[in-house]
Sequence to fold (683 residues):
Amino acid sequence: MFTKILIANRGEIACRVIASAREMGIQTVAVYSEADVFARHVALADEAYLIGAPAARQSYLLGDKIIEVAVSCGAQAIHPGYGFLSENEGFAKAVEEAGLVFIGPKHASISAMGDKIASKKLALAAKVNTIPGHNEAVADAKEAVGIAQKIGYPVMIKASAGGGGKGLRVSCNDEETLIGFVACQNEARNSFGDDRIFIEKFIESPRHIEIQILGDAFGHVVYLNERECSIQRRHQKVIEEAPSPFISSQTRRAMGEQAVALAKAVNYQSAGTVEFVVGADQGFYFLEMNTRLQVEHPVTEAITGVDLVKWMIKIAAGEPLALEQSDVKMDGWAIECRINAEDPYRQFLPSTGRLVKFLPPATTMRAAHPEESLGVRVDTGVSEGGEISVHYDSMIAKLVVHGKDRADATQKMREALNAFVVKGVQTNIPFQSAILAHPSWVSTAFNTGFIAEHFPKGLVPFEQAHHQPDFLVALGAWVHLKSHARALGIEGQMQGFSLEHPSELTLIELVSPPQNHRHHGLTVLDVTASAHQARIHLNGQDFEIVCSSDLRDPVLQGVCNGRPFVAQLERKLPKHPMAMEISQYGAQLRFMVVSPRVATLHALMPQKLPLDLSRFVLSPMPGLLTQVLVQVGQKVLAGERLAVIEAMKMENVLLAAEDAVVKSLEAKVGDTLAVDQIIVEFQ
Fold:
């Protein structure tokens, strides 16, 4: 067995590999860029070495530099994690040639399966079901249009070396094919150094289901059941679960056997994933094989009790796989939510900055401890005070729960999301909560188009419905009473002017537009001096709230009418100094609590109109301005491309909202943009 390994990655996955290596008594070596000097994976590793500048191509993609570090520090093997160099055939081969062990499949297997064009041909030869398409690299955008017309729309434009949703577009017409081909090429070139593109038929209303496999150097391969990965946005997975609530045991077995056959055809030795697209009739077709550890591997670990990272290390060290197909169990249900630094209220634009607060929910399961079950696990590579950078992808944590069945796991996840506090950057936590509350999630009647169909513009602020909205209003009143109780405790109040707990209150729900603010009349039936306990009457119902949380706590935990609750409280809101905000299950309540008289006067206050910014094109996110596609004096039409911003390894195209003439350009190619920075001004 190895005594020291190097992890050629960063963030959450580097920390995950360190956890298993530590359990095995193996020392770990981290590498880091200048942006990651204070990163969590650097602190956790036994040794750490600086390898370059913040941009991945100047650090984490420098295979020769990483191998040099491994050799010089005495590491015997390199674990690539996922992304970066994990599916790079050249890197795996160079590791082997340097006398080190690549903790993953052999470079020949990566070559065969990592290339989507070659892998599809191999799948056909291995009698694996495949999707109709053009299996050769497409020369240019014009040829792409011709091929798409021949296959028939809709089609998928895919980078041969792509992964993680990068270098992938769905096209429904010739114009989308022209734009999508160029975008896929650029993303693939920047992320993987390989801009070959191919095209295949897009299966409508599909499910995305993948099979986890493990294979050793002795030809023994098993499949560890499946993961349902159909909840996706722009082809990037958002929520994963295991097992799938859709396929039958017969389909599971057939998919598993085909995955094993494909792995054996390329002498696969490590953990890997065979991805399938599955139709409504449970017909399944090979999509691709990921020759690495998957982001969503924890849900498989939870239901099987198998530590995939440990087995990757053991197999790389030459140990036989001590697991038969009959040994693979399927215990309970697991769900994973990817916590990303992106704003669901602004169409998921990347969000960067410092983590002012990072308080994950209480955990009872840990990475590298598959014996721990029926609880909550958080895999992360960040900590409070850390920086979320534009240089890397947006995922900051993985929240994983394990329940006795799907309903139990869903409820566990909803409560864990309520308790997950992140301040300083926007996250998709409320969006995850909204998905788990959606009837289609509950009924399992969804496919890969779920988000595009039900959340085409992301979340609309304060419009996500709560299953018990009056509870949020009552909790808002409790917050006011708690604040009032603190004022009552201040000494030195003048005789005759002392404060008392009010008996009548009005909660003003601050919605948009301001003229639609909603007023809720409440009666305080009973309240203790400290306001730990209060009974509030609203709309014919009494709410008895018992909560000992301090108003400085970002999470409120208590009991309402005998049922426990967890909610988040924000007391200092920008532009709303008197307002507060409560959030729970993806729903938000922004409010003020006042006397009925003040509420009457508040309704008469004039409202300030927002500034007219229609003459400007503003940067919707922090990022690098890579293209400016217009000139001063140019007339542009609605829908025309204006500029391209690169952020968190993705290209984002800005389009003209209406016909206009360019008056000035306020930013140039190469500028690092802030949110709402002016790029173009129109006449």
The chain has a mean pLDDT of 93. The domain at 4-103 is CATH 3.40.50.20 (Rossmann fold). The first helix runs from residue 11 to 23.
